[in-house]
Specification:
- The chain is an alpha/beta fold.
- The chain folds into two domains: 3-36 and 323-422, Aspartate Aminotransferase, domain 1, CATH 3.90.1150.10; 60-319, Type I PLP-dependent aspartate aminotransferase-like (Major domain) (Aspartate Aminotransferase, domain 2, 3-Layer(aba) Sandwich), CATH 3.40.640.
- 39% of the residues lie in helices and 13% in strands.
- It is built from 13 helices and 15 strands.
- Strands 4-10-9-8-7-5-6 form a seven-stranded mixed beta sheet, sandwiched between helices. It has a four-stranded antiparallel beta sheet with strand order 11-12-15-14. The protein has a two-stranded antiparallel ribbon with strand order 1-3.
- The protein binds pyridoxal-5'-phosphate.
- Pyridoxal-5'-phosphate binds at residues 105-107, 134, 136-137, 190, 194, 219, 221-222, 242, 255.
């Protein structure tokens, strides 16, 4: 198919797209000449919703005008700020409002929840992660083991993909849990793998962990706002996420956490701070810690209002669009991108993201078969051509058509630029 007919196809798809108007709710980056870039990097940092600036400005104005009274007055009193984020986060994660909370950063939340959910006891002390886990997760888990006086070389199980494959199968994890389950205290797994874009069957993973008697937690950095989630029904014990990728809340934005309603801070040990205290009596300033109900009890500090404001803007857009509709568009975009890459560049690029819709999110990861040097050259050329994706060592290009703000046209642009960068003509 010629590139012209691909453009005609994507134009028709954009004209029929019921979510196309949402692109206008975002600010699109431009190059030095003022041309709009083809932004395909929402798996790393989502774009700024236009309303984010208004909301941050509003809080700055409240602070300037009211000072400390901003906690109780103004358009959104700060005292209830984190509380107000919970219903929309619950909708995105398939949880009840009580089961979710916005707080801290992802790695901090991971530590806080492991302080409660990783309870090594004798033989049952090992933690399972995937061998290619995001480094921060590995650091967090290894340091928790050391914190408990354990040796990560012995107590950390890193599950490898099958030889010759980039993907870790749920069945491999199930087999491990069946044979070594009595040694395993906790499984920590991603919702979507950051490098390969592989989406996992979360209910299946929880069920396998629970059959073995282990706790099961998830890192949803690449899953929240990308796929519909049903953490409550899946029976996940806990989950953490950041908000700067598919949740479009800005660099370092306030992160989040889920704790299943069958768990309670009243019975689980954990680390405490005043913001996790029951809000009804928090300001009595009494010495005893009385936990708030649900996930809110894991909060330590009062929330960072300026980093939480953009999340309000973003969550309103998710409520408007609906994650199921976004998912349908995402699958269509991903299928088109995969089709074109396979048709045109199979000799040069290998799609490492699984082809099955239920095993993928927005991101498509492409291995440059010729290796690192060619890959870096391709990546640099793409950047010069106005394509924003990213590069992961040693040989992977990642692109994410995000249904909230990308058009099908962006896929045609990427294909045209890849054609040029790979110099296939
Ligand atoms: C999968 C995954 N886990 C953890 C992190 C670390 O997040 P943070 O720096 O917000 O703690 C990231 C950051 O990109 C990530 O992609």
């Amino acid at each position: 198919m010629s590139i012209e007919s691909l453009y005609r196809e994507t134009q028709a798809l954009d004209e029929r797209d019921a979510l196309a108007h949402l692109r206008d709710a975002f600010v699109l980056p431009v190059n030095a000449q003022g041309q709009t870039l083809t932004y395909l990097c929402g798996h790393s940092l989502g774009l700024a919703p236009r309303a984010a600036r208004t909301l941050v400005d509003q809080e700055l104005s409240t602070w300037e005008a009211l000072g400390v009274q901003g906690h109780h007055e103004g358009p959104r009193p700060w005292i209830d700020y984190a509380e107000a984020l919970r219903p929309a986060l619950a909708r995105l994660t398939g949880a009840s409002v009580d089961e979710v909370v916005a707080m801290n950063g992802l790695s901090v939340n991971l530590h806080l929840l492991m302080a409660s959910f990783y309870r090594p006891q004798g033989r049952r002390h090992r933690i399972v992660i995937e061998a290619g886990a995001f480094p921060s997760d590995r650091h967090a888990v290894a340091s928790q083991l050391q914190w408990h006086g354990l040796d990560p070389d012995e107590a950390l199980i890193e599950l490898h993909a099958a030889p010759g494959s980039d993907l870790t199968e749920e069945a491999t994890l199930e087999a491990l849990l069946e044979t070594q389950g009595e040694q395993i205290a906790m499984v920590l797994w991603p919702g979507v793998q950051y490098l390969t874009g592989q989406a996992f069957d979360l209910p299946r993973i929880v069920a396998a962990a629970h059959r073995a008697g282990a706790m099961c937690g998830f890192d949803l950095a690449h899953a929240i706002g990308n796929l519909p989630l049903s953490l409550h029904d899946a029976q996940a014990d806990f989950a953490v996420w950041c908000s700067y990728k598919y949740l479009n809340s800005g660099p370092g934005a306030i992160a989040g956490a889920f704790v299943h309603s069958r768990h309670s801070r009243a019975t689980l040990p954990g680390l405490a701070g005043w913001w996790g205290h029951d809000p009804a009596t928090r300001f009595r300033m009494e010495p005893q810690f009385i936990p708030a109900s649900g996930a809110a009890a894991w909060q330590l500090s009062n929330p960072p209002i300026l980093s939480a404001a953009p999340l309000i803007a973003s969550l309103a857009l998710f409520d408007e669009a609906g994650i199921e509709r976004l998912r349908q568009k995402s699958l269509a975009m991903n299928a088109l991108l995969r089709r074109e890459v396979t048709l045109r560049f199979a000799e040069a690029l290998q799609c490492i993201t699984p082809p099955e819709p239920q095993r993928q999110g927005c991101q498509l990861s492409l291995r440059v078969r010729a290796g690192r040097d060619t890959g870096r050259r391709v990546f640099d050329t793409l950047q010069r051509l106005g394509i924003v994706g990213d590069w992961r060592e040693p040989d992977v290009l990642r692109f994410a058509p995000v249904p909230m703000y990308n058009r099908f046209d962006d896929i045609a642009r990427l294909i045209q630029a890849l054609d040029q960068a790979l110099n296939l003509r």
